[in-house]
Write a structure and sequence with these properties.
Length: 428
């Protein structure tokens, strides 16, 4: 038998070096996948208090139920419990305030502490010289501990409401303390769940806007009186970039914030969570914010442009969403070009100038919120002008396929995409 050829331990070829450089990324991806994709959060039922575990799910409009009592684990149930906890906390806090005032009056009455016995008791322990104050302080301690327990229960309820939502079941993005950032789920005064990204890295600052758009559109899709009734909303999808080249600066994936699917047409939505004065230039496709607004990269003079004598900075372009739409059409293959729309929605801007009142050349740009329903009306009109291209069963099958094939569970693809982009930047 011929002697086996000794391995080449000399200089490696270019292809071998490239394979070796990719291996650390594969290891990092598998580690992140183990941390987040396999993460099974525990949900505390708002009805019976039992602990329920929720896995991956593609049925966006399906409400999950508690295995013990059968109660629905929906936002209304968690919101009702959160409001009850807040009411109890408020009542207890008022009782603490009244006890604090009572302690002040007791201290004022016992201020002139004369006599050797009182001075001796005060030297041993201040509470012994005033037993009334000791009793009130003990009651305040019990109430304060009860308030702390209720606040902890409120945080558990908010996390459970988030983990039971369709957003988490499809994105698998965890919140604190189950993630490495300060991303938190909270209920506002009106009982609506929202994400708080204060203290989060820049890559996660836009998640509250995406979550809000997804949640509001989901409500519209389930409302029989809404123009979006029967549509499906898909969050945080990554589609392969059609123009990708391994040694170019082109992206590996096109990240789409929200996809709105209907039987008649579809819409690719780019969400901008910019709390600033926004100017949209439809001619050059530029998205600008006021120069005094806080943000990243605002010191770059080449981006500054004066609009009406006011300095603005170009942060993005409408071409970004056009690239998303191209990647979606290539991956989906069910919607023709005239049935595919693009929307750039601004959540919570101080002001916006230069948007559109409807779809212009299949493109919509404007604010989105409780009082800004221009996009919902525009997409409803686009649906009425077109015939169905598929029945409901095929639409649901398409949504499941897109979530499984292009979902970014735990932001794994986002991390790999960022690492590859950094490698290309270092090589150039």
């Amino acid at each position: 038998m011929a002697e086996a050829e000794a391995p080449n331990r000399g200089k490696r070829s270019k292809g071998e070096r490239k394979d070796r450089e990719v291996r650390p990324l594969e290891c990092a991806a598998s580690k992140v996948s183990g941390d987040y994709v396999g993460f099974m959060p525990e949900i505390t039922c708002p009805h019976c208090g039992d602990v329920v575990k929720v896995g991956f799910g593609c049925e966006l409009d399906r409400v999950i139920s508690c295995a013990a009592c059968g109660g629905p684990l929906c936002n209304e149930s968690f919101s009702r419990k959160a409001r009850d906890i807040k009411r109890r906390c408020k009542r207890l806090s008022k009782r603490v305030d009244s006890l604090n005032a009572l302690i002040g009056r007791v201290d004022a009455m016992s201020a002139p502490a004369d006599g050797s016995r009182r001075r001796l008791l005060h030297a041993l322990h201040p509470a012994l010289a005033n037993p009334q104050r000791m009793i009130i302080s003990a009651a305040m301690g019990l109430i304060s501990r009860r308030v702390a327990d209720l606040e902890l229960e409120l945080r558990v309820t908010e996390r459970s409401a988030y983990y039971a939502s369709a957003w988490f079941r499809t994105t698998r993005i965890p919140v604190a303390p189950d993630c490495g950032t300060a991303l938190a789920a909270r209920f506002n005064k009106s009982g609506r769940l929202y994400l708080d990204s204060a203290g989060c890295p820049p890559a996660d600052q836009g998640l509250p806007g995406e979550f809000r758009v997804f949640s509001d559109l989901m409500e519209e899709c389930l409302n029989p009186q809404s123009p979006l009734f029967g549509c499906l909303v898909l969050p945080n999808l990554f589609f392969p970039a059609p123009t990708f080249s391994s040694w170019s600066r082109a992206p590996l994936w096109e990240q789409v914030d929200v996809v709105l699917l209907a039987r008649e047409c579809a819409c690719i939505i780019e969400v901008k969570y910019w709390r600033a004065d926004v100017f949209v230039d439809l001619e050059d496709g530029g998205l600008y914010i006021h120069r005094t607004s806080k943000g990243r990269g605002l010191g770059s003079k080449r981006r500054i442009r004066k609009i009406g004598g006011v300095p603005y900075i170009r942060l993005s372009s409408l071409d970004q969403n056009a690239a998303h739409a191209k990647a979606f059409r290539s991956a989906c293959g069910r919607y023709s070009e005239d049935r595919l729309f693009e929307a750039t929605l601004f959540v919570g801007p101080k002001s916006i100038e230069g948007g559109t009142s409807g779809f212009v050349a299949n493109r919509y740009v404007g604010a989105f919120g409780k009082d800004d329903r221009g996009f919902i009306s525009a997409f409803g009109e686009a649906r009425r002008e077109r015939k169905d291209v598929m029945p409901d069963e095929e639409l649901r099958a398409l949504a499941r396929r897109l979530i499984v094939a292009n979902g970014d569970f735990g932001q794994v693809r986002k991390l790999i995409h960022g690492a590859l982009f950094e490698l290309r930047r270092m090589e150039s």
